[in-house]
Write a structure and sequence with these properties.
This protein has 2 helices and 28 strands. It is mainly beta. Strand 8 and strand 9 form a beta hairpin.
């Protein structure tokens, strides 16, 4: 046995010991622990607004902190800022590259950002215009792969994930990478900031989720369990747990304190990948977009599906819940955004 095979064998043995230790600590499960809580009745959600304006597949959306505005990114080469209350377009930004995969709204409401196959995170200032559209504040260049996700920490810093298997923290004003987070063995597909913005989660094509500390750049925990690419990840509202959505046809709920999986959300009739996940404000509901054109709604305590939102005519590529918890938005390859409650 050569040196590397010996190391691999020792690693496998350590992983088995860790798994056994986790199992020994799991004295109950979430279904039994919540046995005294009544199950949810079927959820009746309706489309309240349909946002029309994109001419091609919508790949991403993100709500503003005011719970009224949202930004969407489409492969028609445009970012559109919407007023969800009126269905009106507030701003339409023509992009240099139409191959956009992600977008983000700054907490201040002053900026939006996007990125995709151009490997660049482009930040726009919504308060300043050049030739009738939002001014480019900065183009953040440094990733060696496509940009899969971006999230503002504040007006000065933004976090990105990439197909180059890394995440990066950027200083927007200087246009420089402050910190790099490397550890995944596949394309990083999604990230989620903790409520206190000291930590973030990443998910990747190596079927792993990782918890990172923004203060020192270290990976604090790694979570396994999925059998396919993890396309989406989202913190639970209290920051102690998180949900993932994968190509293995399932969503899963992990607890950071218990360091293990708590719940699996799947159904025998679902035979397609999960594109995106989002929690309700309380965390009792998990919304998940799928390749089969539907958005499924799951009861996080009971693990049961409580609704199927079926109004799109193509893949549901992105989902998002407003900060006030009053509205769900779904985006699709059918070029439409729909507001539900």
């Amino acid at each position: 046995m050569d040196y590397f095979e010996q190391l691999r064998s020792e690693t496998d043995q350590l992983e088995k010991k860790i798994a056994a230790s986790r199992k020994a600590c799991a004295d109950t499960d979430i279904v039994r622990a919540s046995a005294g809580i009544p199950p949810l009745t079927k959820i009746n959600m309706r489309v309240r607004r349909t946002l029309r304006g994109h001419l091609a597949k919508i790949y991403a959306l993100h709500w503003a902190a005011d719970s009224r505005h949202l930004v969407s990114a489409s492969q028609d080469g445009k970012l559109i800022v919407w007023d969800a209350w009126t269905s009106n377009k507030v701003n339409a930004i023509a992009l240099r590259s139409s191959w956009v995969m992600t977008c983000a709204y700054a907490p201040s409401g002053d900026m939006v950002a996007c990125g995709g196959l151009d490997n660049i995170c482009t930040v726009f200032n919504l308060r300043e215009e050049v030739d009738g559209q939002a001014k480019i504040t900065k183009e953040l260049v440094g990733h060696n792969g496509y940009l899969s996700c971006c999230r503002f920490i504040n007006n000065r810093q933004i976090l990105t994930s990439s197909g180059d298997m890394t995440c990066a923290l950027w200083d927007i004003e200087r246009g420089q990478r402050i910190m790099e987070f490397a550890g995944h063995a596949g394309d990083v597909m999604s990230l989620s900031l903790s409520p206190d913005k000291n930590m973030f989660l990443s998910s990747a094509c190596d079927a792993q989720a990782k918890l990172w500390d923004l203060r020192d750049g270290r990976c604090r925990q790694t979570f396994k369990g999925h059998d396919g690419d993890i396309n989406s990840i989202q913190f639970f509202p209290n920051g102690n747990s998180f949900a993932t959505g994968s190509d293995d046809h399932s969503c899963r709920l992990f607890d950071i304190r218990a360091d293990q999986e708590l719940q699996r959300f799947s159904h025998e009739t679902i035979n397609c990948g999960v594109t995106s996940v989002a929690f309700s404000r309380s965390g009792r509901l998990l919304f998940a977009g799928y390749d089969d054109f539907n958005c499924n709604v799951w009861d996080t305590l009971k693990g049961e599906r409580v609704a199927i939102l079926a109004q799109h005519e193509q893949r549901v590529s992105c989902v998002g819940v407003s900060d006030d918890g009053q509205a769900l938005c779904t985006g699709s390859w059918d070029s439409l955004l729909k507001i539900w409650n």
